[in-house]
Structures are given as C-alpha cells and as structure tokens.
Amino acid sequence: MNLLTAINGRRxxxxxxxxxxxxxxxxxxxxxxxxxxxxxxxxxxxxAVIGHDIVNNLSEEFVKKVxxxxxxxxxxxMPSVWPDVHKNRYVSLGRSxxxxxxxxxxxxxxxxxxxxxxxxxxxxxxxxxxxxxxxINVHYGPFDIxxxxxxxCMLAHEKGLGTCILACVSHYPDxxxxxxxIPDDKKIVIGIAVGYPDENHSSANFKSTRDxxxxxxxxx
Length: 220
Ligand SMILES: Cc1cc2nc3c(=O)[nH]c(=O)nc-3n(C[C@H](O)[C@H](O)[C@H](O)COP(=O)(O)O)c2cc1C
Hints:
It contains seven helices and four strands; from the N terminus they run ααβαααβαβαβ. The protein is of the alpha+beta class. It has a domain at 3-79 and 121-195: NADH Oxidase, CATH 3.40.109. The protein is globular, with a radius of gyration of 18 Å. Flavin mononucleotide is lined by residues 11-12, 93, 118, 164-168, 190, 208.
C-alpha cells in the first residue's frame, strides 16, 4: 500500500465485525510498530495485547461504571480546558459524526448509546493497551507513545484492520488492572480498539476533516 493512500485511508473506526483478529496479525502490528522514533531510544512504552474475552469483561465493567456515574480516575490527566479554536473542532467532530450516523440532535438515547459503545471499544474484538513507568516524568514518554500508536494504527490499516485510539478506556485503570497485570508503578496511557471494520455500520462513511491554516511558511 502506497504511504499516502494509507495515510488518507486510515480513519478511526467506530463499528467492528465480531471476528477476532489472529495473534499472528496482531504480532505483525505490534512488533513492527515498536520501530517508532522515541527519545534517545529509551522505548518508554510497554504494550499489552488483549484478547476477546478480556475486552468483553472490560467493556461490561466500564459501562456499569459510566451508567452509575462513577468519576473517571485515569493514570494520565485528561484535558479539561481547551483554547476555543480546539474546543470548537472537538464540538464540530461530535456534531458531524452524529449527523453522518443519522443521529438527530434531540435523540438523547442514540447519543447515549454511542457514548456507552465507546466504552465497549465500539464492539472491537481486540484491543491494545500502552503503559509506561510512572518514573517517566517528562512529556516525551506520551509523545513517543503517540508515535507508537500511530504506527499501530497504520500497520493495522495495511492489514485491512480498523483501529480507534480511545482515551476513555483508560478512565477506570483499576478495572484494567483487574484483568491485565499492569503494576501500580506503571501509568496506563492509552487503549486502542482493533478489529475488522464493519462497513455496514452507521459510522462507516464518516471521515474527519483537517484545517490546513495551521501551517505557516518561513523564508520561502
Ligand atoms: C489520544 C487520543 C485519544 C482519543 N480518544 C478517543 C475517545 O475516547 N473516543 C473516540 O471516539 N475517539 C477517540 N480518539 C479518536 C479521535 O477522535 C480521532 O483520531 C480524531 O477525531 C481524528 O479522526 P480520525 O482518526 O478518523 O482521522 C482519540 C484519539 C487520540 C489520538
């Protein structure tokens, strides 16, 4: 697959077929993804690849907590305030996604179901968690994990798999630690849903946008 086609073709997938991904394919993704550039080759990441049954258990427990209104307690601080320009893009993403999915503005139930579904990894059969040592107190740890995550998404895309990076699945780290042996001296940074895209899902045709006016040129 040509690189530009791959970059343009990848999207966050929010609807999956139930078919589990083989260990062989997941190995291809993670073993090649770790060639991401990183600070001084410190490789600040650790990766947990998650099977179907554990994804199901996590999903059930997350949704229970969300329905009960339990406050999120992530290892990594979640952004609470965004400058307006970024906040507007965030709001616009939600609006255009719901419009594309045929969810009306006043349809509270459908919106809520989408929200719960997010905590169910959007129905993906597999997931990948990335965590790092709590002793890494600089931003470059998560920066490097960003590069790793993008490699995971691109390599999965190359294999016909869909992904969605999900901050929400790290909201309740105690639940994650119950099923995955991640010691307390590690920070859970992010989870990524992985599976075969359901091309008949209502979100399948949604494509996010990008602003190009954030690029400036100097000395040309
Ligand atoms: C750090 C990070 C956290 C994210 N968390 C979520 C999430 O919790 N729920 C969700 O639906 N999408 C999540 N996303 C996906 C973004 O919404 C998505 O990447 C963005 O809208 C751009 O769309 P695209 O990936 O289809 O190009 C996350 C992406 C990143 C990089």
